[in-house]
Amino acid sequence: MATSVSTPKRHTKTQSTYAFDNTATNVAASQMRNALNNLADTVHDPEVKRRFENEMDNFFTLFRRYLTEKASGNTLEWEKIRSPSADEVVAYSKLDDDKAHASANLSKLAVLKLNGGLGTSMGCVGPKSVIEVRDGNTFLDLSVRQIEHLNRTFDADVPLLLMNSFNTDADTAKIIKKYQGHRIRVKTFNQSRFPRIYKDSLLPVPESYDDSLDSWYPPGHGDLFEALVQSGELDALLAQGREILFVSNGDNLGATVDNKILSHMIETGAEYIMELTDKTRADVKGGTLINYQGEVRLLEIAQVPKEHVEEFKSIKKFKYFNTNNLWINLRAIKNLVEANAIEAEIIPNQKSISKGNSEINVLQLETAVGAAIRHFKGAHGVVVPRSRFLPVKTCSDLLLVKSDLFFLEHGALKLDPTRDGFSNPLIKLGSHFKKVSGFQARIPHMPGILELDHLTITGNVHIGKGVQLKGTVIIVCNDGDKIDIPNGSILENVVVTGNLTLLEH
């Protein structure tokens, strides 16, 4: 059933906040403001114009901050970075499992999946969330099954929200119709649409509101807070008695609702909890939690001075990284957004787009939802088992989650007990496996990898049915050649190279 929502008030930025010290910065800001006003003049529907002007106000605030920080060289001072204190990072094993209050706790919860990304990096069309990942189920199917099971088990009504981008909204609206008969309420809302900026002139690429889609970009998941309020969904959740939002990436198959963390958040009164997990050599670039001048902050590799990057990657100094599984208090979000108090670190992302017959260098200013942690009271990290971080970014990840290493239980992937205590195998598939179509053509049947430690495959390699891979297996096929691994093969601690078809026994 659709929930009626009131239109939230517009948060205007006073003109005095546009003051600058630097003349060049002043000029760039003034030119941008004029360009945005001209863009707004191309919108004729009053309600659409109101929403668009609000988005452009938010974009201008981000742009203004980018200019001032760039001019001032505003960066973290490395020597002031400290490891988090004992109460700023808590071990999952120390949390109580409050089963007696599980149903009551779930009545305060809503789940949000970040659903703005396309499947283009894996060669797919449409939202990434509709890629088939296991036994005919998509990412979205698994999320729905998990929450449905939760609602049945605890007689709960936990809703699922999807934050779409303008890239995924229309397709997602069609897809979620199939869940109408399920025991779950699925709601969607859109994050902002910001204009890309010419890198040289720092002016917006679009010339009108309905300019082509490649002139615009979704500004990262740090936009969640503003988008949640502006859509009216936050007020709707509060009206239902929801207090806590569990946020995770749509492609993280390990991000299931955890009653222990939910109970811990309610018990401590924390406004924000970030799930961290142990850093391995594969995660050295992941953001980590630090204490900076007495407050908890997220440190991303982009913020680290070049001379300290290797130190940042150190597993000894920074032991944990951010999984982007986040538990956030809804009332706190509302208060911070209405006070314009969230200033997440800006991530300048350089791209090139086609304009006419030439390639144009553009800039898009993004923020991350994890960077807002410093604005919330009682914010801290919980170090969770690695099983809660199972992202699928590449076909190498897809091989892992489709394999016999896991089994499906009520929409959640569970690790085979024989692998308990062991890290997942490291899998590296070459460019022939970059797209899902190439992956499926070459590995139509998942090999057994229960005893695998490391797998590297490059070149035109095809794997037959019932193949077992154990220990370290490296298969390298030369350009223009082909390697066929026949049905029933067992490869253990081997290097296979050249151009061959192995004979079946």
Description:
With 505 residues, this protein is of the alpha/beta class. The protein contains twelve helices and 27 strands. The chain has three domains: 22-74; 75-388, Spore Coat Polysaccharide Biosynthesis Protein SpsA, Chain A (Alpha-Beta Complex); 395-501, UDP N-Acetylglucosamine Acyltransferase, domain 1 (3 Solenoid), CATH 2.160.10. An eight-stranded mixed sheet has the order 2-18-12-15-11-3-6-7, with helices on both faces. Helix 1 (23-40) runs antiparallel to helix 2 (46-72).
In terms of topology, how is this protein built?
Blueprint: H1 23-40, H2 46-72, E1 81-82, E2 89-91, H3 102-106, E3 109-115, E4 132-134, E5 137-138, H4 139-153, E6 160-164, H5 169-175, E7 186-190, E8 194-195, E9 197-198, E10 216-217, H6 224-230, H7 233-239, E11 244-249, H8 259-268, E12 272-278, E13 288-292, E14 295-299, H9 309-313, E15 320-329, H10 330-338, E16 346-355, E17 358-367, E18 380-383, H11 395-402, E19 406-409, E20 412-415, E21 426-429, H12 436-442, E22 452-458, E23 461-463, E24 468-477, E25 483-485, E26 490-498, E27 500-501
Parallel strand pairs: 2-18, 3-6, 3-11, 6-7, 12-18, 21-22, 22-24, 23-25, 24-26, 25-27
Antiparallel strand pairs: 1-13, 4-5, 8-10, 9-17, 11-15, 12-15, 13-14, 16-17, 19-20
Helix pairs in contact: 1-2
